[in-house]
Amino acid sequence: MAIADFLGNYEGTQVDRLSARSLFPAIHAAYGIGMLLAAGLSSYFIGRHVGLTAHYFGTAVVVAGASIWAALNFPNSVRTESRAATQTPETQTPETQTPETRQLARSVWTERRTQLIALIGFTFIMAEMSAGTWMPIALTNSGFSQAAAAAAFSLFWIVVTLGRMVGGAIVDAIGRSQTILLSALVTIVGISLFMASGSVTMTYVGLILWGFGIAAGFPMSVNSMGDDPVMAPYRINMIITMVYIASITVGPALGAVGQQFGIYVAFGIPLVFLIISAIISPVTKHQQPATSQ
């Protein structure tokens, strides 16, 4: 999954870079569509009393079939660039890696622009993970039934998916860095309303804004790493690494804060990071490929 995650984001940024319109948010919408379909199918099979073993086996068959079909049908285009220039960190072998490529892979971790964009990407994943892990729990603790909390979480992901489907049009209209700024501000408002709301209506308004806000934030952060096609694989590899760090750390960190001060207070952590991301969002403006920082 990690390799597929990297390759999907890397290839997606290259397709987006060559396209006249912004396509990358819509590519990420496929993740939300898959998640919603999986949730619906899971509910159906649970209702039919299908065992977990059969469920996992069926999932494996579907994933294997889709992967084989995609691999056989992807265009096998021949590019003019050298093989070394087009290989990604994941596809390079010890024989094809050179001191130069290893140096490039290390150098991105010290680039100021890359570090700041990675922080923005980390922040949006933190906001997404905190919703995925703790939003349903926070809702049930505040009086929602489990069914109502599950419905609210489903609504959240529907909004995220719809936001990504229209995200490309927003990017085309106002630009990438302004989209990230807008995403951060909308998410800030959404989380703030969710934390402070005393009514069911405002809770739903907050989670809708939260979902719409994060929709294009991470995709456009990854997209910002792909301006230079030579450095893109190394920079995207870095931000994907940050994603998995966020996946490991965000849940326990918010849980620890939630135990001490309450889960709604814990949502203040991504809120602070989002404010920082809004301030530094100009760093995601388009960079000419020849520029290196």
Provide structural commentary.
The chain is mainly alpha-helical. The chain has one domain: MFS general substrate transporter like domains (Growth Hormone, Chain: A), CATH 1.20.1250.20. Helices cover 77% and strands 0% of the residues.
Protein topology:
Blueprint: H1 2-18, H2 24-47, H3 52-73, H4 83-86, H5 99-107, H6 112-141, H7 146-174, H8 176-196, H9 200-215, H10 217-224, H11 232-261, H12 263-266, H13 268-280
Helix pairs in contact: 1-11, 2-7, 6-7, 6-10, 6-11, 6-13, 7-8, 7-9, 8-9, 8-10, 8-13
Can you tell me the residue ranges where pLDDT is under 50 for at least 5 consecutive residues?
A: 80-86
Question: What's the SSE pattern?
Answer: HHHHHHHHHHHHH
- Distance, first to last CA: 31 Å
- The total count of strands amounts to 0
Q: Report the major sheet.
A: none
CATH class (first level) name: Mainly Alpha
Number of DSSP helices? 13
Task: Calculate Rg over CA atoms.
Answer: 20 Å
Report the helical percentage. Answer: over 70%
Q: Output the structural class.
A: mainly alpha
Task: Assign the CATH superfamily.
Answer: MFS general substrate transporter like domains
Percent range for β-strand residues: under 5%
Outline type: globular
Based on the coordinates given, report the CATH architecture.
Answer: Up-down Bundle
What is the CATH T-level topology? Growth Hormone, Chain: A
Number of domains: 1
Whole-number average pLDDT? 85
